[in-house]
Task: structure prediction
Amino acid sequence: KKRNGALNIILTLPQQPTNTSVHLHSSKLLCGTPLKSVPEVHTGTFPTPIDVAYSTHQFLFHMQTSIQINNQLSLTAFQQADIPNMLLYLNDLEIYQNTLHIPYPYTQADAETWLETTRTNLQKNGVLTNWVIRHETHGLIGGIGAMVKQGMDGHLDEIGYWLAAPFRNQGIITAAVQKLTDQMFETRPLVRIEAHVFSHNPASARVLEKAGFQKEGYLRKFHRKKGLDIDSLLYARIRTDG
Result:
């Protein structure tokens, strides 16, 4: 409930003690309390906007709607108003050649379908897993997300990303990859995050290496796209890599 510029959050907790924790936090504040040490109903008042995370049976759902990268860039949800930039930037043959599922040419219908996919994923997973790379001036300039390969309580996931041509070679996508993977490790019980790169895309491989990923293999004919079999580089970042 919002009152006097603040968000009042009421969490009804299980009567039986568990090993899980509840976290109420903003970008500056994080506090966790084991459920066994709090009463059945726990209330708190925090400034808005508020990010809420809660866990059930030892896995954490993170109700976060924005991730700040720096003073110009953030990760946010996709919006209807992003469609013009999607049409502008995704009609790029290089993006098509270096990704598995983004179509070319990219149409209004493709954008609408993607927005519906993000809404479906949010409903299914309970959290945002598809993020806009948003510039404070230029709006949407790219996209990044998690594939949720094993559900939100799995130990393994995979990321994918793209960046608009005018914003490449500025460290933006490396910063986005670092920030998202940090957030994934912080809010989920992940041990391993993977990324696959087409073998003809060394620039993306360098992004991953700068973001703390290690090359683990060369997978021959791993991807199939439009009847073509494409070799893939396998990269991974492990929680203990730091």
